[in-house]
Structure formats: structure tokens, C-alpha cells
Amino acid sequence: MKKAGQRMLLLLLLPLLLLSFAGHEAAAAGTTPGKIVMDSKELALPKGVILENVNGSVMIPIRVVVENLGFEVLWEQSSRKVTVQQDGKSVQLAVGSTTAQADGVSLTLNAAPKQNGGTVLVPIRFVGEQFGLSVGWDNTDKTVYLSGGVPSDTPATANPLPTATVAPAASSVPAGVSASPSPTLPPQTGTEIPEEVGGSITATPTPAATSPVVKGAVFSENRLIVAAAGGAKATVTRVTGPDRIVVDFAGAVFAPDFSGSFPGVSTGGSPQGKLDVSGYPHISEIRYALFSTNPATVRFVIQTTGYQNYQVSTDESTGLVTIDLNAANSGPGTPVNPGFTGRPVIALDAGHGGKQSGAVSLTGKLEKSFNLAVILKAGAILTQEGWADVIYTRTSDVTLGLQDRVNIAQAANATLFVSLHANSLDKGYPNRDKVNGSETYYSRSESLPLAEIMQKHLVAGTGFKDNGVRSKSLHVTRETKMPAILLEAGYLTNPGDEAALYSEQLQDNLAREIVAGIKEYLGL
Q1: Where in this chain does the record put each MurNAc-LAA domain (predicted)?
Q2: Which residues sit opposite 119 in a β-bridge?
Q3: Can you list the domains of the chain with their CATH numbers?
Q4: Range list of H helices, 80-187
Q5: Which distant-in-sequence residues (6+ apart) come within 8 Å of 332 by Cβ?
């Protein structure tokens, strides 16, 4: 994974591919305050606030976004520091400073947060991506596009954005996202696709403004990102001999101003070429060309050095199609989805991991270690009893994003999702070391029955004070499709809770109670 600064730089360049198709006069952009559109809904800007682009970073009012997503925002007037928290993740930014903290890791920003009267402006791409949001920017009319969140005060619509899917290991079914019925799929795994890229292609007339077009492409952070418009839809197929992933935009041609690295032109005048894949040892080549003229089809081929999982997502508001090769079960040491046996599939999530240590206890112990120890014990009991299949989000000390955890559960078609954490309080919190107890969180109403049962068993497993069931917009409990809860076993900032949480006896008891709660919920 590249550094955060490199990631922001790349993604800030992507919207430039869209500029020649914006359809607005540049002069108008200089006078408009701008807009923020989240999941197709325009958000209200504070009066007098104008969106700014500082050193390539789009600055927006922090409260506009986080309050619509249900995040927690803390403001320290004396230090002018903003802390954004959700699902155990914490991001800290300070007005005037280009250094930010994400779960204790220092990251460099392109532009420092600034204060405009009573409003604090922050670089939205950095904040959004830390919490799993997709961010786009149209410079011509100063519009920020956000997707991936569910506003806390707005019910889900009947037609949500397409949900990204993960191609399960050893699957021969093509993975793809399409908002409408797809055209005939290319051949499935193991079938050769002739004349993939290259050769003499007949020149194609310039398309009408509403025709499906591919405007540009870039590859970074192990992701192929394609800018499309005019209703262009992607179908994705895995092919072997050699291993590769084929991405087709049926009915589409290249836009006149197509942008891509190492560009070339076929003998027929259509763009063809390769993208820069240096630094990615598992990707040998990514090439593109107009594969067919009747019907027109733009094709990208991702040549891999072996079997490669992938995830496809489409942002309808920006037209960006992403083929993410960072699938959670594609590398060594990561979980493997179980085979489908007809038994319940239990997704067990050990919070944090790797570079994200989670909370640090009073004596320096790390939350991530407690979470993993108990989850592995619970999984071992479930496996031994044999009535369920177990899917882990992680089985070792690896860094894993919030959406990665969701994707693993979705790909396994999990029956339910249980995430385990341990709580803590900031140093400035009053009577910090006195607060204790266990609580269970849920986000969607259908998860409440599971939360109530699991809270009862959580308290039985820890022996701590019963803090009850609480509703909160947390990423892993909000974005999952199955009943999902997050357990906060106890407080690492409380001496009594901390000592017990790291004892073998409590961990064994808690693992047994987690299993008992799952069985009670399933009526087993």
C-alpha cells in the first residue's frame, strides 16, 4: 500500500479526466459556493461557506459530512484540534497543521485544515477515505461527490448504489456490477478470449455526447480505476491460461480526449496502450484497446502472475469504475472463505489489527491482541461443535480496512456478523478510570434482536456491569446486509476491566458465551 499522501495525490488527479465533459463554463465556477452530494442527496452548506481547492485538496466543512453519516466529532477550542471517530477508528486534524493522526499513525496532508469564522474546513478526500467513503470532485462547478455512507437521519432508498462484490476464491462466476441488465457476458473462467488487445482496428466516428464512452484510466494502489460516461457499464471476467482479468465496456468507445499512461494509437486511429504497473509484482501488464467495433467494446486486460481475487464497484455519481485487486483473501495469511455446506455461516471479526492497534490499556496492552484471542477461541468452539461454518475477517495480526471486513462477510453470504472490541476513554475524560462495563452496538433495526441476545451473553462472559444495548452508526454494522453487532467487552482504561480482559479465564468464558448467544439467536 502506498503512503497516504500518494493515495490522495492519485485520486485527486482522477476527476481531471472528467473536465472536458463537464458541460459548464469555467467562468461560472469562480462565483459558485459549490455543492456536496452524498449518495445522490445534496447536503446543505453553512451560510457564507465556499468550497475551496487548496494545493489540490478540496476543503469542506467537517460537520456537513460527519453529522450526515452519524460520526462523532470533537472540537478542542484551545488547541483547535478536530477529532473524528467512528467504529473504533479515530482521526485527528489540527487547524493550520499538515500533519494528521489516523489511529496513532502520523500522515502528511497536502493542505492544512483551516478555520473560517465558526466553521472548520478539512481536506475531504483524506477524511472520507479514512472511513471508507468514495470521494469525487468536479472542478467546473465545485461539486464534491461522496458515496459509501448512509445518512443517519435518512432511511435507505429503494434503489441504493450498487454494492461492491468480492469474487470468492475458486469461483468461476464472473464478478461485476451493473445497474441494469448486462449484455451477453464474455466467456467464463478457462475460456480463451480471442484478439484481446491490439491489432488493426477500424477507426470509430466520434460518439455523440450521450453515447457510452471511456474517458480515462489509471492504475494505483493495486486498483484499476476507469472514468466512464454516457451509461457505459463494465462486465468483468476472470480468464486462465494465462491468468488475467478482462474488463469490457460493451457499447462504448474511447472519448476523443481519452487519458491513460503509455498511450498509443492503433492503425485504425483508436487509442490503445498500457498503464503503468511498476511496483506491483503480481501484475505483469494492463493493456487497453477498442476490442470490437460491431458492437463497439472497450476492453482492459489485467495480466496477473497467478490467481488474483478482485472487487468491482461503480460510483454512479462520478462514473468511476474501480477494479480493486486488494481483495481480503487474495494474499498469504489472510482468511479463506469456507465452502457452502448449507450450515449457518458465522462471520467473526476481531477489531483492529496490524498497524491499527486499537485502544492501549493502562499497562500498555493492545486492544487488537484481546480481540483476536477471543475471536479465535470462539471460532474454535464453533468449528469443534460442527453445526456452523466460520468465516474470519482476520486470523493474524494484519491491517484490515472497515470495508474489507464487510466485503469478507458479504462474499461468504454470512448468516450473521459478530465484531469484538474493547473500549477506552480519552485521558481528559472525567473519572476516566472509574467507567467500566460491557455494551453491545447495532445500527439497523433488524440487528436489534441479535444485539439484545448477545448483550445478555456478553455480560455473562465478562461478569462486568451491564451497560445495555446501544444504537450507533458504525461502518461494519451499518454496511453489512446480515444481522450485525459490535461487542465492547470492557474498558481498558478501567483497572479492574483491564486485568480481567487479559486473563485466560475471562477470555475462555467470553468465547463460550459468544457461541451460546449465537446459538440462542439461531434457535439451536
Answers
A1: 406-519
A2: 116
A3: 4-147 (3.30.457.10), 165-324 (2.60.40.3500), 345-522 (3.40.630.40)
A4: 124-130
A5: none
List pLDDT tens digits, range 242-260.
778 889 888 888 888 787 7
The whole-model pTM stands at: 0.41
Q: Which residues of 141-168 are buried (b: 16+ CB within 10 A; e: fewer)?
A: ebbbbbbbbbbbeeeeeeeebbebbbbb
Contacts of 208 (CB under 8 A, 6+ apart): none
pLDDT score for 451: 94
Q: What integer pLDDT is reported at residue 181 of this predicted model?
A: 32
pLDDT digits (tens, 9 = 90+) for 56-68: 667 777 766 666 6
Contacts of range 424-429, beta carbons closer than 8 Å, 24 or more positions apart: 424/359, 424/360, 424/361, 424/367, 424/491, 424/492, 424/493, 425/491, 425/493
Asked if 280 contacts 288 with a C-beta cutoff of 8 angstroms, the reply is no
pLDDT confidence of residue 377: 92
Distance of CA 194 to the CA centre of its chain: 34
- Contact status, residue 131 vs residue 125, Cβ threshold 8 Å: no
The whole-number average pLDDT for the span 264-272 is 69
DSSP string, 308-372: ---EEEEETTTTEEEEE---TTSSTTS--PPPP-SS-EEEEEE--BTTB---B-TTS-BHHHHHH
pLDDT digits (tens, 9 = 90+) for 117-151: 667 888 877 777 676 666 666 666 677 766 654 33
